[in-house]
Predict the structure.
Amino acid sequence: MYFDVDGHARACGRFTGPGSHRDWRVLPLALILCIATVSVGLADDFTRFRGDDATGVASDDPRLPSQWSRTKNVAWSSDVPGQGWGSPIVVGDRVFVSSVVADEENVKPKAGLYLGQGVRDPAKGIHHWMVYCYDLTDGKELWKHEAKAGRPVVPRHPKSSYAAETPTSDGERLYVLFGDVGLYCYDLDGTLLWSNPIEPKKTNMDYGAAASPVVHDGQVFVVYDNLEDSWIASFDAKTGEQKWRTKRNETHSWATPLVWGNDQRTEIVVPGNRMNRSYSLDGDLLWEFDGDMSILVIPSPFAAHGMCYLASGYVGDSHRPTFAIRPGAAGDLKPESNFAANEFIEWYQPTASAYNTSQLVYGDYLYTVYDQGFMTCHNAKTGDEVYGKHRFSPGGSFTSSPWAYNGKIFCLSEEGRTYVIKAGDKFEILNTNPLDEFCMATPSVVGGRLLIRTLTKLYCLTER
C-alpha cells in the first residue's frame, strides 16, 4: 500500500506474493479496515480560490461545524507571520498559504469602506514575500520559502496586502502568484522549480494586484489588469515558459478568471469594466460584451446550472449588474435593445451584485452578500427576486465571499464574525461565530475541516 498526493490509499506493484499485486482479497481484514479508516480520514483537495469548481459550495459532511469560536470546535490554530489575504489551499495533508512579512510597521487594515482614501506610497521597509506549508492534521509548519525580499515599488490598497492572491495547485506542483512581483512554482516539499517575474504597473487608485491564478490541463493562467499594460497570459505548468499573452483593454478589474468547462467547450471567462470576455485555451477571444459593469470589477465568475455568472457592484454605482450566461456564445453579445434580448444571456438583474464578495449559488438560489452587511436572494435559474435586502445583526462589513454546506450559508465579516444563515427562500440567522480578529480571506473547506485565515492566524475547525 502507498498513499498518493491526495492522501488516498492505493494498491500497487509493491504488493508481492500469492495472487495479483492488485488483488485486495489477499490482505488481512484488519489491514483492509485500517486502510479504509485512513483513506476516509484524510482530505480531498482544495486547489484554488473558492475550491476546485470555484463555487464556494462544499459537499455535506457531519464533521463540518456550524458553531465555533477561538476555543470551540478548534482542531488547531497556527500563527501565520506577516499579512496575506489569499485563501489557504490544500493538497493531500498539506495546507499552503502566502504572506508578506515587513521589517517595519505599516498601515494596519481596519474594517469598513475606504471610498478611495488611503495609502498612496509603497509600504516602508524591507518586505519578505513568503510561502508557508502546514500539516493539515495538527497545524505544524512543515516548510517555508522566501520567494523574494526587497522594498515594494508600488503602493497597495490600505486594507489589502502584497500577498492578496490565493495560490493554486494541479496536485503535483504549487503555483504562488504575488501579482506585481512574480509567479513562483514549487514542488509540494517546497523546492522552487521555476519563477517568472512580473513587471509592476500602476493600478487604479494604487490599489495593487489581486486576481488569483488558475491552473488547467498543463497551463497556469494569470490576469493582470492595470493602468499601463493589461494582459492575460498562459504559462507552461511544468517549465514556466510563457505559452501566450493577450492584451486586455481593461484598467479597473481584479476578478479571478474562471476556466469554464461546459457542454460546448472549455473557455476562460474574465469580467471587465469595459468588456466581459471569454478566451479559448489558446488565448483567442471567443465572445465579449459591454455589460455596463460597475466602475470597479472584483467579484469572480463561477458556473452553476449550466450557466456562468458574472457580476460587479461598486457601492457608489447605480448599475450593479448580475448576468447569467449560457454556453456556446460567439462575437459581441450586447443587443441593441436590452441585455435579455440576447439568446446567450439567460437573465440579467441591474442591481443584484456586491462590491467585493463573489456570489453563491446553493441549490436553486443565488445569494449575494453586500459589503455593508446585507443579503439578498434570487432564483439562480431565472433571476427573479426571492427576498430583498436583509441586514445582518449585529452589523458588520464584508470582503470575504460566502460559502455553503449542510443546508447552511456562511458569511464571514471583516470583524471576524461568521453569520450562519439557513438556506432557502426565507432569511434566517441561525447563529453567529466570533473569532474576534480582522478577516478578509475567503475560507476553505476540505475533508470535514473548515480553514479560516484571520489577520494573524490560520484556524482548522471541525465538529467535536
